[in-house]
Hints:
2 copies of one chain form a homodimer. The first copy, chain A, is an all-alpha fold and about 120 residues long. Chain A contains 5 helices and no strands. In chain A, about 70% of the residues lie in helices and about 0% in strands. The longest helix of chain A is centred in the C-terminal third of the chain and has 42 residues, at about 75-120. The interface of A and B includes residues 78, 112, 115 and 119 of A. Chain A binds a DNA duplex (30 and 30 nucleotides) through helix 2.
Amino acid sequence: MTIKEVCEKYNLKPDTLRYYERVGVIPEVTRTGGGIRDYQEEDIKWVEIAVCMRDAGVPIEMLIEYVKLFKQGDETFEARANLLKEARARIVEARKKYDTALERLDYKISRYELAMKTGVLTWE
Amino acid sequence: MTIKEVCEKYNLKPDTLRYYERVGVIPEVTRTGGGIRDYQEEDIKWVEIAVCMRDAGVPIEMLIEYVKLFKQGDETFEARANLLKEARARIVEARKKYDTALERLDYKISRYELAMKTGVLTWE
DNA sequence: ACTTGACTTGGAGTTTACTCTAAGGTGTAT
DNA sequence: ATACACCTTAGAGTAAACTCCAAGTCAAGT
């Protein structure tokens, strides 16, 4: 799979994928004889993880750390698990804040709906 | 309430609050005769909204737009409601991605827990 | 009155995560 | 073999959201 195809699949720009590889968010991608990236299933799995985690706000640095540990082999199972647990905790925290904001927005929107009928905006 | 006190309350830096005011994320804050910020209840409400929305990833630009509309008065109820609805939709979308990431993390973590017992890491 | 610490402004600097540019190589269809 | 689109790298540039700095002002305590 070419870089373009992978980008289309995950809605990324080629520059982003090259950047991910360069800084180590994903391991080195398989290449053709001529040096052109040819993403294998394994490579695509890594892209998928990266995209999924980035979409949940996991910082680049954390993903780089994970790939680093992965490359060090089986000695790092625990370290990797801990890293994932930390990422998990962060996402749970962020999600709580999203819920708070949603509640607040729902209340405000309902007040505006009312105000659009009565002409008067009131709180609480 | 001084800028420092408000910052302590919401875990912000004074520079952040001044920045919010400067770019219009919150309206102008009440000042003492000497020109020093003295946050009133009303001012603090705005800070609270800003923090809450920022924590949910609502961009600065959107908050600025909201304050702009607010300043224009009662003609903008609908526009404000629409803005809030858009913010809401974005947060809902982002939250979905957080849920996906959490599922994925839970699966991975469980696999690592297993691997730490068996010594072998396997997927699916 | 004077020290001390917190406040003010305008503007420059930083961080994170891309995103673009220039100069050149690859590969496939005519 | 010659376009042509697409690929490569190194390195520079950008956007968003702060964050810091310098130079000066304000206010509370002694």
